[in-house]
Amino acid sequence: MGQIKLNQVTKSFGDVQVIPPLDLTIEDGEFTVFVGPSGCGKSTLLRLIAGLEDITSGHIEIDGADATYVPPAKRGLAMVFQSYALYPHMSVRKNIAFPMKMAGIDEAEQNRRIEGAAKALNLTDYLDRKPGQLSGGQRQRVAIGRSIVREPAAFLFDEPLSNLDAALRVGMRLEISELHERLKTTMIYVTHDQVEAMTMADKIVVLRAGFIEQVGSPLELYHKPRNEFVAGFIGSPKMNLIKGAEAEKHDAATIGIRPEHTAVSKTEGMWKGVVGVAEHLGSDTFIHVHDTGLADMVTVRITGDIQAKHGDTIYLTPQLDQLHKFDAQGLRVD
Amino acid sequence: MATKHSRSAARLMMAPAVILLLGWMLVPLIMTLMFSFKKYLPLRGGDLGWVGFENYVRFVSSSAFWPSVGATLTIVGGVLLITIFFGVLLAILLNQPMWGQGVVRILVIAPFFVMPTVSALVWKNMFMDPVNGLFAHLWRFFGAEPISWLSQASLPSIVMIVSWQWLPFATLILLTAIQSLDGEQLEAAEMDGAPPLKRFGYITLPHLSRAITIVLLIQTIFLLAIFAEIFVTTGGAFGTRTLTYLIFQRVLESQNVGLGSAGGVYAIILANIVAIFLMRIVGKNLDA
């Protein structure tokens, strides 16, 4: 069980309100990702749920019971920190055993759970090492192991992959997703990386300056961004946002078109521009087009390869059914 | 600096410093050793020739020797216990965000800047004086008979004075250590269900162990040689004669340089025994 409900939660540090009144429900077993640019309050929100920060007003419910003033240890949540926060003077085994030792679980049961977690996380050979002797990915797994053995109602991850290198990050991303499939426990995951959010989440919560901009499944956010901010934040490369005369033709203040929804031609098309940088990835090519008269730069993404050099003239044609329209307030118009 | 040529140049350039340092240490050490094997009474005949180990035997068989070793160890041990215990407490306290933190920190460090002679005199005359001292007034206020601290409780009094001087040092080292503790570790422990005392025991204290080791070693070296505090308070009376003080008395009050030098060699041996002992117990904290 692990349903978490935030009801009119606010948080202020002194006079600065970092979380304005906020309502959010995280269903049992859901993998929820908080995503937003740095300083948007996503980590603060996670710490409020964990109980590491006191909320200024409002209520937090865990499994239907009011947990607003319940100390962190009693909330039944486990947290994985960005720095892993392993205890450096304890072996891996003792690190994993620590929460159980604090809870007074008997030794036999402790060992059973440690063996189980170690097996699941490929840590069996490292149980007697100190954290200092492990690599980043292994430390990460120890931190996850330490949270698994508590059998918590929900896992909280605070940017757990940001200290790993790119290759390891992809690997750990898969491992965490698989862990969620296996355990079916509620997970809340904070990240500033929208790729992590898109690939792992059942539900994404996009935050900006403490406000929830949109809540929804990854594809909902991709296909129907509620406003310009979400449109620009979700998707890689970024959506092209075009203002001015071109937008007015479509009865909108701003129109957005994703790089992958634009066709490219060397001879004819709706918009004309000059190729700036072309990034050839093999499977895809990203072309940054300048001098279109629409925006500083329009990015397009095409499958496969195209011969496009710096300075070439190029024509772009957007798929009009994939056009996103926004009004003067930045809100979506359908 | 890998070639033969550069290595020998480096040696040549380091030589003056090394030679100076060696001379600085070795000359007094060798002179002490030399005098310790001589009967040397500056006011009663001067250098009276070699006497073998007689000075060593006399120094140890003197009735003052073992009590002085005891007094030395009591003072060192007492001060170490007090400074480390309160040092940890103060460090934790000063690490909390509070109003006037900067001023409080400077105040806490202040005793370290007071010269030992001065602080001992201040304590002796302002606090511990049985007639006009602050403690005497305090005792009388509660209707108790004032204690003449330096004669009735001489060793504890000296431990108190020296602890007051060394507490800032311990606090300072421990405070810097505590500031380097990763806050997320404490939060992780909190999430793991450890109440404050257990967080201290399982996370903070192990983190401080290396700093405590350093405090222990450095303070021991300095405390074995304390002198001024005893000189200006009890003058070595009432069981406060430490080994250092005993040597001082043998050389200057009895004008027996040979006997004092033998005592000095014993002091070196004692210091080394204590150092090895400490290194064995706590030295492993310094690795890794």
Automatic annotation (TrEMBL), chain A:
Q: What class of enzyme is it?
A: hydrolase
Matching entries from SUPFAM superfamilies are given as: MOP-like (SSF50331), P-loop containing nucleoside triphosphate hydrolases (SSF52540)
Pfam families associated with the record: ABC_tran (PF00005), TOBE (PF03459)
Gene Ontology CC entries for this record: ATP-binding cassette (ABC) transporter complex, substrate-binding subunit-containing; maltose transport complex
Task: Write the Enzyme Commission number(s) for this entry.
Answer: 3.6.3.19
Task: Please give the superkingdom of this protein's source.
Answer: Bacteria
Please tell me whether the keyword 4Fe-4S is annotated for this protein: no
Question: For the ABC transporter domain, which residue ranges apply?
Answer: 4-234
Entry keyword set: ATP-binding, Hydrolase, Nucleotide-binding, Transport
* GO molecular function annotations of the record: ABC-type maltose transporter activity; ATP binding; ATP hydrolysis activity
Keyword Cell cycle (UniProt) = no
Q: Give the family from UniProt.
A: Belongs to the ABC transporter superfamily.
Can you name this protein? Answer: Maltose/maltodextrin import ATP-binding protein MalK
> What is the species listed in this Swiss-Prot or TrEMBL entry?
Ruegeria meonggei
Automatic annotation (TrEMBL), chain B:
Checking SUPFAM superfamilies in the record gives: MetI-like
Q: Where in the cell is it found?
A: Cell membrane
- In the UniProt record, which is one GO cellular component term? plasma membrane
State the protein's name. Answer: Trehalose transport system permease protein SugA
**Primary location:** membrane
| Gene3D superfamilies according to UniProt | MetI-like (1.10.3720.10)
Q: Which residues form the ABC transmembrane type-1 domain?
A: 69-278
Q: Which family does it belong to?
A: Belongs to the binding-protein-dependent transport system permease family.
Matches recorded under Pfam families: BPD_transp_1
**What keywords tag this UniProt record?**
Cell membrane, Membrane, Transmembrane, Transmembrane helix, Transport
The protein's topology relative to the membrane is: Multi-pass membrane protein
Q: Do the record's keywords include Ribonucleoprotein?
A: no
- One record GO biological process: transmembrane transport
Question: Has keyword Chaperone?
Answer: no
Xref: PROSITE patterns: ABC_TM1
Species per Swiss-Prot/TrEMBL record: Ruegeria meonggei
Q: Where are the transmembrane segments?
A: 12-37, 65-94, 106-123, 158-178, 214-238, 258-282
